[in-house]
Amino acid sequence: MTPTRFADVKGFLPENEAVQLADWARDVACLGPLLEIGSYCGLSTLCLAEVARASGTIVFAVDHHRGSEEHQVGEFFHDEALVDEAGNFDSLPEFRRNLQAYDAEDVVIPIVAPATLAAQHWTTPLGLLFIDGGHSLDAALADYRNWSQHVVKGGLLVIHDVFPHVAEGGQAPYAIWQLAKQSGLFEPVATCESIRALRRL
Fold it and tell me: Does the keyword Methyltransferase apply (predicted)?
C-alpha cells in the first residue's frame, strides 16, 4: 500500500508519514481494532482501512466533521469547498464519498460525534490509537486522557503533528507525547517526521 493512490483525497498526512502509520498499524492490528481521532476527509482513514482489511479487523473513525479551530472561516486551513449550504464547515459528505470511492465502507465505522462524547461510553480495547484531532491544548489533552487508557498492552499510541519547537507548529501534540512518555504507561517506539509512536507497557 502506498498513499499515492489516495492523491485525490484531501488531508494533511505526508506520504512518508502515511506509510509509517500503516506499518505501525500492521504491527498491532492483531491485538485489536484501530481507532483514529480526527478523520477530516479520510486520508489517514483509508490508509488504516487497507491494513484493517488485510488483518481482519476494523477502523473506528471518530470525528464530528465540523472542523478543528484551524479549519474555520478565516483560519489558515479553511477550505471553502467543505462548507455546507448553511455556511458551516462540514467534511462528512466528502469523507463518506471517499470511503465509498475506495471501497472502505465495510472496514470503517464512522463515529460522527465529538471525541469527548464518544469516549464517555467507550469500552472496546484498541490495538492502535491515532490522535490527530484538535490541536488546542484542551482538545489534545482531552483526547489523550479519554482514549489512551483503551490501548491494550503491546498496542500503540500514535500522535500526529508532534513539533518540539513552537516555530514548527502547535505545541499541544508535543505536550501529550511528553505526558505519555512520562506516564510510565507508554514507551517511545519510533518517529517519522511529525508522527510519533509509543507502545503500551
Answer: yes
Task: Summarize pLDDT for 31-69 with one digit per residue, the tens.
Answer: 999 999 999 999 999 999 999 999 999 999 999 988 666
CB-CB contact of 15 with 43 (8 Å)? no
pTM passes above 0.90: yes
User: By the 8 A CB rule, do 176 and 136 touch?
Assistant: no
In order of 37, 84, 86, 118, the CA distances from 142 in angstroms are 11, 28, 29, 12
Superfamily of domain 3-200: Vaccinia Virus protein VP39 (3.40.50.150)
* Catalytic residue status for 165: no
Q: Which member of 135, 150, 160, 165 is catalytic? A: 135
